[in-house]
Amino acid sequence: MAIDYITKWPTTFAIPDQSATYSSSTSLRHQDRVASATLLLLLWLPGEAVVAEMAEQQQSCSRWDQSEGVDDRGISQDGDVVIGGLFVVHNQPPTPDLSFTRNPGQKPCFSFQQGPYRWAHAMVFAVEEINKNPYLLPGVRLGYQILDSCTRYPWSLRAAMSLISGGNHSCKSTGPVRVIIGDASSTQTIMLSRTLSPLQVPLISYQASCACLSNRREFPNVFRTIPSDVYQARTMADLAEYYGWTWVGAVVVNNDYGLLAVQAFRERAQGTGICLAFFETLNRETLAQDVDRAATTVQMSSARVVLVFAWYTDVEALLLELARRNVTGRQFLASEAWSTSSYLLNNPALRNIGNGVLGVAIRSAPIPGLEAHLRQLRPSRHPRDALLRDLWREEFGCNPDSGSSSDSSSLPSCSGTESLEGVQNTFTDTTHLRVTYNAYIAVYAAAHAFHSLLSCSPIENTDMNRGQQCSSDYNISPAKLLQHLSQVNFTTQLGENFLFHGGDIPAVYDLVNWQEAPNGVLKYITIGRVEGSQLHLEDSAIWWATGSQVPGSVCSESCPPGTRKANRKGEPICCFDCLPCADGEISNTTDSLTCEGCPLEFWSNNRKNMCVPLTVEFLSFNDTMGITLTTVAVSGAVMTAAVAIVFLYNRHTPIVKANNSELSFMLLMSLKLCFLCSLLFIGQPTDWSCRIQQAAFGISFVLCISCILVKTIVVLAVFRSARPGSDSMMKWFGPGQQRGSVLLFTCVQVVICAAWLSLRPPLPHRNIGHKIILECTVGSVAGFATLLGYIGVLAAICFLLAFFARKLPDNFNEAKFITFSMLIFCAVWIAFVPAYVSSPGKYAIAVEIFAILASSFGLLLCIFAPKCFIILLRPEKNTKKFLMGKAQTHQ
Fold this sequence. Notes:
CATH topology of the largest domain: Rhopdopsin 7-helix transmembrane proteins
Strand order of the largest sheet: 10-9-11-12-13-18-19-20
CATH superfamily of the largest domain: Rhodopsin 7-helix transmembrane proteins
Number of strands: 29
Keywords: Cell membrane, G-protein coupled receptor, Glycoprotein, Membrane, Receptor, Signal, Transducer, Transmembrane, Transmembrane helix
Pfam families: 7tm_3, ANF_receptor, NCD3G
Organism: Clupea harengus (Atlantic herring)
Helix content: 40-55%
Distance between the termini: 161 Å
Shape: rod-shaped
GO molecular function: G protein-coupled receptor activity
Number of helices: 24
Largest sheet: 8 strands, mixed
Protein name: Extracellular calcium-sensing receptor-like
CATH class of the largest domain: Mainly Alpha
Strand content: 5-15%
């Protein structure tokens, strides 16, 4: 027997200060020291049990676990196989007494909780059902020993040691329990596991949801009928991602339950852009100070969504403090520990602050017959159930007559036969059984493991198997029991398949929402379900803390398309600035990290959220500028034609015949070509238009300047020949020589253009920038410069000759007008060069056209306007006498 080995351990050793507070902030080394000391205590106790058995014949017995603090606060029933249970029926423990001496005066735990007491009776009810079931453990009577763990691990350890040593509230032993259903707290379950794992005592917890308990190497004896916290933490992260909450605060209890849940939340939130705005912890021992600090943080933070992982009593203190400060508009995400707490829902002070709470809840399931079992309970029928007496004191305000002199209360006495029928309280409420169902199904899991271990007959509803029984040898090996527990696989009364994955069960949760009922009381309604990682939500049924609209909680508003995120230095990743994309770059998604460049021939639109084809720009006949220049060019050509008609009609008059009328008509023809060649620059550039436009421009202007130059030379020759004693120069520069000169000057330009177009001609080009500018490249810059330079040389020579001939005597000295025309021509083309170079796109073409038209009009008006004025308005002056009169006078 294990007792023989255990009694060899020393009976004196130092016990750590069990009144000290342990939380998740306590290091694992501290927990291990506590667990080790507790294990020594555990090993010592069975030896004490042997001593008790040896003194069995005495009239009285002395056991350390007989005090009112532990075993007298439980429920028990003998059986062939006994199952232990630990439930936090009382919320406030007294100062612990671990002296291991009889202390009848020790005060019991206080602050009775009806919910956990219902959980305990769910275990009782499950055992009664199993004992009545002829197909499950036939011939084996299950017993139970249920104790109050008082919310703290010293009492939990003390109760667990009492269970495995076989003690109860009497001096008789019920035998050690084979499996313990409990405890509720993750920290207590961790302590129990480390203490009991050397003895391989299985624990099946109904509420210990710490993710750490999934580690089978550290906790091989722990099974759970509640999903791991990692799943509800992930669910909360999924909810935050679903609703776009990227700035979330957290207030958690400072133990494994809270800290590991936040860790799981952070792991799930990685890569989703969700950040923790703040992280506050609550300790039960310093709750007032911690609540004040956490409330200040919540109040000052810009986060509007707050994750709360804590026990409902701690949450009550936090919510009351926030309500006192009139903090509103905070959306709380509740963990399963308080999301369905009727204690909080029935508190009228939390009506405003609690309205809209969104929580993850343990799935609810019905237990047929449980309500009838609860309502038939009476202290008169269960005189040794001290916990039932506590319920009676709280519900009926009286002290039931238990027949025990140890009961002392200032409350009036009552018979204990009062009925719970018609009583509506937390204990009798079976509408939403969550933890209650977990405790209930844990008993069935243990029963099925016993059934398999004891080689019972198959569980089938057939008459063939009725009456078959399990083996009468109840010497159950803990190691084998652990093995059979891990292999449990059965169908529940609801038709669901139950099995353990390691020590856990698949994650199934309800999603609940706190809403104000018409009577002004808060209630929770189920608004969704979680199965694994799948969220099933009914958004329309949710009432938020801010009303009907989903609240927002972000550090920085999402960056719209057309911008990119730029993280702020030294701040979390969800705090950022939105920078607009540069020209030619876009972002077409929300919260884009980068802007992408547009492909060739595309450009960003004004919002920088889409690449659009670039606008193709060229000087078109359809736009305003093209229409204007076309109109001016055509007008110039028409005016030139009109002048030509006037000259042709008056070709025999002196003013037309003077200075070689043939040159005048050639000049008018070249001017008309100058006006018309400007039209070649308008329209979409093509290969032929690019080649011909510059050549036509160069040849037309050279023809024009050549005519003017020859006319200037003719003027000089005529007046030089008119001097006394001078030979006539006109015989050397007659009409033939004049035409030849014009042809020669023009042919030089033709050769230049031919060479240019042959070697590197102008070609159409798509200049891609903010727009696609269709333009003609110059091709050879030297060719273009030569073309313009030749025109400039001719114009300069013509200007100089005309300038020297401007004072020659004559009533109508044409050299004066040629001088003015050349002055305008040179000024225009000198201004053209910088304007052309600095003008973008089609405006450069417009500048060139303007220079062509301006210089053409200058030549037309300066040379032909005075002659037309005389021909049309002063015909009396259109005589040879008038023209030569001044010359004759000087003679």
